[in-house]
Design goal:
six-stranded mixed beta sheet; alpha/beta; Nucleotidyltransferase, domain 5; hydrolase; nuclease; single chain; exonuclease; 8 helices; globular; RNaseH_sf; 2 domains
Length: 237
């Protein structure tokens, strides 16, 4: 099936998320109690709910989206190109509204591609849209659909080949498939610190864009195609 996928109908995405509050002390008491309940089986015996709060960004109930980066394939003179755009800021509602507006201009059959997207990016986007009272775009709606009707590609799922116990990071998958990746000055575990303490959102946006580029290149490998040269990758504002 992947061989027949039209890249012109694919949007590669990646999101960056952080806890909704800069520190545990700022979390309202009723949410602190719910956080403690939600994470009680995830925390190590010596870890308090406060200590574990740095992980709140990965849970849609306690986190928020600060950046969505998108990659679009296109061809010119039989050469493959990739265009990258990011939607980011302090206001999650505006980010999600702008993303929804962008999708409204795309075909309903648009296919998303993300690494671990089915477990993280896609459901996280839907949950935060619901919280922000934004109608979920048709491209993200999966309720009532059969598995083969869902236009969501997940590069991590492709690598599993049916082995549901397997987890492989994007960086590892890129390395073994010989996909060159830009050197990152941060990783996912540092996003909260860079956002709240360093207040350096552009640094996070750059990191997010790099993941989109890497995911797009990995997808091309799965399709048996050559990767896109760096001079054919454009970042637009």
């Amino acid at each position: 099936m992947l061989k027949t996928v039209d890249l012109n109908q694919v949007m590669v995405i990646d999101i960056e998320t952080v806890p909704q509050y800069a520190s545990y002390d700022g979390v309202p008491q009723h949410l602190q109690d719910l956080w403690a309940q939600k994470t009680q089986h995830q925390r190590k015996p010596e870890q308090s709910a406060d200590d574990f709060y740095e992980n709140a960004g990965i849970m849609a109930e306690f986190g928020k989206i600060i950046c969505i980066s998108l990659g679009i394939f296109y061809q010119q003179n039989n050469t493959q190109f990739l265009r990258i755009k990011s939607i980011y800021g302090e206001d999650e509602n505006k980010i999600l509204t702008d993303f929804s507006d962008l999708l409204s201009k795309q075909v309903p059959t648009l296919m998303f591609c993300a690494h671990n997207g089915k477990e993280f990016d896609y459901p996280y986007l839907c949950r935060r849209m619901l919280v922000n009272r934004i109608e979920i775009p048709i491209q993200l709606q999966i309720s009532g659909k059969k598995p083969w009707e869902v236009n969501h590609i997940d590069t991590m799922e492709l690598w599993k080949f049916g082995d549901y116990k397997n987890y492989t990071s994007l960086n590892l998958l890129a390395a073994i498939l010989n996909v060159p990746t830009p050197k990152d000055d941060i990783d996912g575990s540092m996003v909260r610190q860079v956002y709240y303490e360093e207040k350096n959102l552009p640094r996070i946006v750059t990191y997010c864009q790099k993941d989109v580029i890497t995911t797009a290149q990995v997808l091309l490998k799965f399709k048996g195609m050559d990767i896109i040269s760096s001079e054919n990758i454009t970042i637009v504002t």
